[in-house]
């Protein structure tokens, strides 16, 4: 019986095919990037003048290494933080804020423009707790902005932001931007992180 020779496989174009597959996967693959917490730093001020801030206008929030929350030197649960921040920001203690609905306590913040939330975290604080505290504080600002926008424009601030970010929104973007900026001016987000 005659031996049959095995047919040779033409491997000449294998390198070309592998190279084309490599290029295809490099082009079509998306690489996810981590996104952090969105914070905008204040612009550098050439004027190095010291600003005096009254202690009553600072809302201190401390998170220790055991993930315990201290607000104004008192222990607090995370679920109560938003309410306490809203009460502080919306106090209107000096009477200059005609849109504030707070208790008008003279020992608390004067008005939302002067109110500052100071957040300090211990080095051992867990990332989960850090983000949770940040979320509650930002939610306090958003809650006040939503209430104010609803009373002025019949629409929440969050909805207005979504409309402005929506490319297909058919309304007047410039007018909407003015409304958003007005609400941001009335309730400016002054969140300071202390080292």
UniProtKB/TrEMBL annotation:
Which processes are annotated in GO (biological process)?
protein transport
How this chain sits in the membrane, per its record, is:
Single-pass membrane protein; Single-pass type II membrane protein
Positions the record marks as coiled coil are: 166-193
Instruction: Name where it's found.
Output: Cell membrane
Which GO molecular function terms does the record list? transmembrane transporter activity
**Where is this protein chiefly located?**
membrane
Q: Does the keyword Transmembrane helix apply?
A: yes
Q: Which GO terms describe its cellular component?
A: plasma membrane
Q: Which UniProt keywords apply?
A: Cell membrane, Coiled coil, Membrane, Protein transport, Transmembrane, Transmembrane helix, Transport
Q: Which PANTHER family match?
A: BIOPOLYMER TRANSPORT PROTEIN EXBD-RELATED (PTHR30558:SF3), EXBD MEMBRANE COMPONENT OF PMF-DRIVEN MACROMOLECULE IMPORT SYSTEM (PTHR30558)
- What is stated as this protein's family in its record? Belongs to the ExbD/TolR family.
Instruction: State the name under which the record lists this protein.
Output: Biopolymer transporter ExbD
Species in which this protein is naturally found: Yeosuana aromativorans
């Amino acid at each position: 019986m005659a031996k049959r020779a095995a047919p040779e496989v033409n491997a000449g174009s294998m390198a070309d095919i592998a190279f084309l597959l490599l290029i295809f996967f490099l082009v079509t693959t998306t690489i996810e990037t981590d996104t952090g917490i969105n914070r905008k730093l204040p612009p550098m001020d050439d004027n190095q003048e010291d600003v005096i801030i009254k202690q009553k206008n600072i809302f201190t929030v401390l998170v220790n290494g055991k993930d315990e929350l201290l607000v104004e030197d008192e222990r607090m649960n995370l679920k109560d933080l938003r309410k306490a921040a809203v009460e502080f920001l919306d106090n209107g203690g000096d009477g200059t804020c005609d849109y504030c609905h707070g208790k008008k306590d003279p020992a608390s913040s004067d008005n939302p423009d002067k109110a500052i939330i100071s957040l300090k975290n211990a080095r051992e604080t867990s990332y989960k707790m850090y983000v949770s505290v940040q979320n509650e504080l930002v939610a306090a600002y958003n809650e006040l902005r939503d209430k104010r926008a609803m009373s002025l424009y019949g629409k929440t601030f969050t909805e207005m932001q979504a409309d402005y970010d929506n490319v297909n929104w058919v309304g007047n973007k410039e007018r909407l931007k003015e409304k958003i900026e007005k609400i941001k001016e009335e309730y400016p987000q002054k969140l300071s992180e202390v080292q």
